[in-house]
Structure formats: C-alpha cells, structure tokens
Amino acid sequence: MYKIISNSLITDNVYKLEVEAPLIAHSIKPGEFIIIMVDSMSERIPMAVYDINGDNIIIVYSVSGASTYELKNAKSIHSLLGPLGNESKFTFDTELYQDKKVLLLVSGTGIAQVNRISKRLNELEIENDIYSVDKSIFNEISVVNTNNLSDLISKYDAVLTVGSFEFMEKVVEISNILNKEVRVSLSPLMLDGVGLCGSCRVLIDGEIKFACIDGPEFDGTKVDFETAKKRMELFKTEEGRRYLREVEGNTFTGGATNE
Ligand SMILES: Cc1cc2nc3c(=O)[nH]c(=O)nc-3n(C[C@H](O)[C@H](O)[C@H](O)COP(=O)(O)OP(=O)(O)OC[C@H]3O[C@@H](n4cnc5c(N)ncnc54)[C@H](O)[C@@H]3O)c2cc1C
Ligand code: FES
C-alpha cells in the first residue's frame, strides 16, 4: 500500500496526486513512467511522474474514464510499478544538446511528461522552454496558439512534443519543414508495461517497437502515426481487439481493457 499525501483538483478535470513512494522517487529519471493500480483488481494506469518532493512522487492526471475516476477517489494506492521505459534522449545524451535550444511543446497533460525533463535541462544549463497549446494547467506555463506553431518552432534547434497522436503528428510535420530535430513521447494504450502483452506496439521506421520498453520517446520522423491512430481506435471495442489479435498474432496478447 502506498500512502496518498494529497489528491486535489487543480483545474477543469485535472488532478494533482502526491504519493509516498521513496524507491521510485529516488530512482526515476526524466522521461520514464510508472503504472498505478488503485486496488488489487483495478486496471493498470500508465502515468508520467510530474515531479518529486523528497520521498514522494507527484502525478498530474486528467479524469478520462473509469480508472482515472477511481484514482480521483482513491484513499490509498495498491501498487506502483516503475521506473518503466527509458530516460529522455535530451537528458541522457546531454552533450548533443549543450549548445542547443530545446522546445518542449505539449497539449493537455503532456506537461506531466516534460516538467522533469525541463528541470534536468535547467540543471545542465541547456536552454529550454515549455509551451502548451491548451489553456495551461499551470498558470506559469506559456501558451501558444496552434496557428503560431511554425513561428515558435523556428526559434529552436530541437523539439520534444507530448500530446495526442494528431497533435504530435502536426508538430512533426512542421518541424520537418523547418528542418528541426523532433522527438515525440508516445502514450499508446498499455497493459503490462514490460513488453509482454503487445498493447503498446508502434511502428518506428517500419519496425515493430513497444512504447513501454523501447520508448516512450522516439524520433518523431520515424513514427507511423496512421497505424498508431488506427490501433487506438481498434482497441476501443472487443471486435477491434479481436482483429488486432488476428493480424498481429503473438505480438498482441492484450485484450482485457475497458469493457
Ligand atoms: C507512458 C504514459 C504516460 C502517461 N502519462 C499520463 C499523465 O501523466 N497524465 C495523464 O492524465 N494521463 C497520462 N497517460 C494516459 C493515461 O494513462 C490514460 O488517460 C488512462 O489510462 C485512461 O484510463 P481510464 O480508464 O481513466 O480511461 P479509459 O476509459 O481507458 O479511456 C478514456 C479515454 O482516454 C483514452 N485513453 C486511454 N488510454 C490512453 C492513453 N494511454 N493515451 C491516450 N489516451 C488514452 C481512451 O481512448 C478513451 O477515449 C499516460 C499514458 C502513457 C502510456
Ligand atoms: S504495455 Fe507494452 S507490451 Fe504491454
């Protein structure tokens, strides 16, 4: 059992959760993520760690369905799995970005994935800014109009974007035109988070990868967004999941999701 320190509404439907989890708090790197189970029978919820406060981790989440609704009402957390995935290239391959200006461009709760990356870049004295296309969850974050993305991106050397597939696809397209490096942190549906179920399968440069173990961050120019969007849709129905099982064979064993 993990003790909840606080779990409160910060803005329309978005909550900030602080949980005592010393092992994760002292080991999780920027870009990695965790999986939360509220109860022993609950669904597994993948989440970024927005921040660390001593022995506690801070999660910023929106309530979008049954599991996040359960999280909003939770009195304690049954299990936390993590750190999962890989550290962001921006904080790992630091020498590559030493003299570069990095843009962290998000929509919605994508802010949760980039906050610790920005903090680490600040420690490393790598210039970076966070912008959101949504009315920002936190007042201090700058907001950019989607019509002005091109102007904004042109001022930076490299971009990391987090949000819906549609949003990230658009950012990749603009960054490509402007010849800027662009990376994306993907959040496909995930079940086990350790590469076994195949739910988070994505095509990167034509090759099958699993966002939970190979990502979640990838070179944005290599991501097959069309397939990713189609899979997300198919996952919503039992018929769709049956189809995925048929066509993806032994790389897709996921199935018991939200129905
Ligand atoms: C690596 C990773 C990190 C994440 N970090 C955060 C975070 O910091 N904050 C946050 O609010 N959310 C985050 N998410 C998304 C979050 O896990 C989902 O919103 C949550 O699992 C939805 O569960 P639910 O049962 O409440 O909703 P469901 O009923 O499962 O889904 C409700 C709606 O949300 C969509 N949805 C479900 N799962 C995802 C997903 N993985 N990505 C995008 N849309 C989804 C569904 O298609 C549906 O339309 C992250 C996801 C991943 C994979
Ligand atoms: S969640 Fe990635 S393979 Fe299962």
Comma- or semicolon-separated keywords:
single chain; 259 residues; alpha/beta; Elongation Factor Tu (Ef-tu), domain 3; Rossmann fold; 3 domains; six-stranded mixed β-sheet; 29% helix; 31% strand; globular; binds flavin-adenine dinucleotide; binds FE2/S2 (inorganic) cluster
Determine the number of helices (DSSP H or I, runs of at least 4 residues).
10
CATH topology of the largest domain: Rossmann fold
What spatial order of strands do you see in the largest sheet? 11-10-9-12-13-16
- Domains, number: 3
* pLDDT < 50 stretches: none
Beta content: 25-35%
Order of helices and strands: EEHEEEEHEEHHEHEEHEHEEEHEHH
Can you tell me the CATH architecture of the largest domain?
A: 3-Layer(aba) Sandwich
Distance between the termini: 26 Å
Number of strands: 16
Structural class: alpha/beta
